[in-house]
Design goal:
It is found in: Cytoplasm. The protein is α/β, with parallel strands linked by helices. Helix content is 36%, strand content 16%.
Length: 441
């Protein structure tokens, strides 16, 4: 019998099937970790199915992760639901090769209006990792079209994370990333040290800039671009760094004819307090990658924006255009819901929400600095982080957070939260309680 027509199945049955057959991210298929069954979601909340194995757990959890940072407007938002339903009445998908449609055209225009000035061409991709792959191809094809075919390597930052596909992995941190597991599969890139932490001594910032400038000078004949997450390195360690470092990267790229590729997949659309993190530094990249919150967490979509000069050089080169074409690029459903998500951001109330959430996280998490085992507590916009002096016991920390009413997903030595912007003050307090419980567990 088809699973779509099968009769109602118990929670225990579904969880057993999940454990037997479903392979979850960053997890073992043969020794899977515990999962919880979500029945529905609304606002900033996840509603769990009644699990006989966990009778004492809360049925509703405040989602401190915003579905891996994407669901900035929360769940079941009426405007986003309506956008999907309306578009579904016209068409769910159509190929983007040789065809176009209004939602994609309007989305490209809207992104150009919102992004730093001068980014005039938009390539619609289908995930953040793919957007980074496209950006790396753009950089190489640009240098080749400019008569510099030996420039194929990237200057990336230690502590960075840009995705899980091969090209994206190659510019992730070479120690904390997955390089060691795929010897010979990843392009060898040039890595600069992790930038100093935000608030670092100016002398440390100057020393870092000098070191990066020297690296770029020494490798300038083989470098195509500098690749960085602006101001906040996400999954590589939730590390915030000074705007002066980003300004320096722009200057260094210009000095050596490199493209500056900024990965705003995690930081874009308000997460750090400005619409794009690079706005806070007054820096315009040559190539900008966005994703995650682009559709408000409804559908997978991403985009790569670039300057007219980059587009011209690539298009006039030997390939005759950008050599990439995802099957679902420009998907009408994702384009329509992305437009609706950007409409919700247009009134600017998100900025007050992000500031309010930052205040709630900063105030609530500050006492954790005095707990044993805590190395650091930091916030950056609607991001709150507690860094420990040892790796987190993820199952134990997760259980403790859930018991406090919050859904969190710790990793490495970090217990952190990026709640939806619609989270109320009381829900932010629940997230803080969840982090506190996870840390003390």
């Amino acid at each position: 019998m088809s699973t779509t027509t099968a009769p109602h199945r118990s929670v225990a049955d579904l969880l057993a099937a999940d454990r037997a057959h479903v392979w979850h991210p960053y997890a073992s298929a043969t020794r899977p970790g515990p999962v919880r069954l979500v029945e529905r979601a609304y606002g900033a909340r996840l509603v769990l199915a009644d699990d006989p194995a966990r009778p004492d757990e809360p049925r509703e959890l405040v989602d401190g992760m915003a579905s891996w940072w994407a669901a900035i407007h929360g769940y079941a938002h009426p405007a986003l639901d309506a956008a999907v339903a309306e578009q579904l009445g016209a068409m769910a998908h159509v190929m983007f090769g040789g065809l176009t449609h209004a939602p994609a055209v309007r989305l490209a225009e809207r992104l150009m209006d919102l992004a730093p000035a001068g980014l005039e061409h938009v390539f619609l991709a289908d995930s953040g990792s793919v957007a980074v792959e496209v950006a790396l191809k753009l950089a190489v094809q640009h240098q080749r079209g400019a008569g510099r075919p030996r420039r194929t390597r990237m200057l990336a930052l230690r502590g960075g994370y840009h995705g899980d596909t091969s090209g994206a992995m190659s510019v992730c941190d070479p120690v904390g990333g997955m390089h060691a597991l795929f010897p010979g599969r990843l392009a060898p890139q040039v890595f600069a040290p992790r930038p100093p932490a935000r608030g670092a001594d100016p002398a440390a910032v100057t020393a870092w800039i000098d070191e990066v400038r020297a690296l770029a000078r020494d490798h300038s004949d083989e470098l195509a671009a500098i690749v960085a997450e602006p101001l906040l390195q996400g999954a590589g360690g939730m590390h915030a760094y000074p705007a002066a470092c980003l300004v320096a990267l722009r200057d260094i790229a210009d000095e050596h004819g490199l493209l500056l590729v900024l990965d705003e997949i995690a930081t874009g659309f308000g997460r750090t307090g400005t619409l794009f993190a690079c706005d806070a530094a007054g820096v315009r990249p040559d190539v900008l990658c966005v994703g995650k919150a682009l559709t408000g967490g409804y559908l997978s979509a991403a985009a790569v924006l670039c300057t007219r000069e980059v587009a011209r050089t690539v298009s006039d080169g030997e390939g005759g255009g950008l050599l990439h074409g995802p099957t679902f690029m420009g998907n009408p459903l994702s384009s329509a819901v992305a437009l609706a998500s950007l409409d919700l951001l247009a009134d600017g109330t998100w900025a007050a929400d992000v500031a309010r959430i930052e205040h709630g996280l900063a105030t609530g998490l500050a006492p954790l600095r005095d707990l044993p085992g805590v190395r650091d507590v930091r916030t950056c916009g609607a991001v709150g982080v507690v860094q420990l002096d040892r790796p987190v016991d993820v199952p134990r920390a997760t259980d403790a957070a859930v018991a406090a009413g919050a859904w969190l997903r710790p990793f490495r030595d970090l217990v952190y939260a990026m709640p939806p912007y619609v989270a109320s003050d009381a829900e932010v307090a629940t997230v803080v309680a969840g982090i506190t419980a996870a840390v003390t567990a």
